[in-house]
Design goal:
Length: 172
């Protein structure tokens, strides 16, 4: 029984709503369906229609601005692609010439000499605490070569740079 009364209540509310929508009763709403003409003497303050109070001559269809595009045309939702990235900055480094090789100090010191039984000269050198026996033409430590020896000097060549070093012979 309760559902019957519920249906009756809903149908009556619906009926009242439809009747109110189809038959307006206020005088302002009765003039809403009439055509509105604005004359130069008529101001918006004298109008009683609330819809017409928002109208001006600029919003009438004859005075709408021209659009440069169709407002009802298709809309592209794709965004334009981002600009390409800037080219990388190339920093040119100047490669300096490698420094010229520096010749090390001669590590050998003359200690003495003697004649061998066959007449060749034996040369005694020292390198720090190490004693070295050499002859003319011998290669010492793969970098030095005993080139020549006379009465006043011993000549040793530094092979990587092809430089000659003279060691004075002390004769007392």
């Amino acid at each position: 029984m309760a559902t019957k009364w519920r249906w009756i209540l809903w149908l009556s509310i619906l009926t009242v709503t439809v009747i109110a929508a189809l038959y307006p009763t206020s005088p302002a709403s009765k003039s809403a369906g009439k055509k509105l003409h604005l004359n130069s003497g008529t101001t918006l303050a004298t109008l009683t229609n609330p819809i017409a109070q928002g109208l001006t001559s600029a919003t009438s269809p004859a005075h709408l601005p021209e659009l440069d595009h169709d407002p009802f045309g298709p809309v592209a939702w794709d965004t334009p692609p981002p600009p390409p990235p800037a080219p990388p900055v190339v920093v040119q480094t100047v490669i300096a010439e490698p420094p010229a090789p520096v010749e090390p100090n001669l590590p050998y010191q003359f200690q003495g000499q003697m004649k061998d039984e066959d007449g060749t000269t034996v040369i005694f050198l020292s390198k720090g605490q190490e004693g070295i026996v050499a002859h003319v033409g011998d290669i010492l430590d793969t970098n030095y070569k005993v080139v020549s020896m006379d009465e006043h000097k011993l000549t040793i060549a530094y092979l990587p740079m092809d430089k000659l070093h003279d060691i004075a012979l002390d004769r007392h």
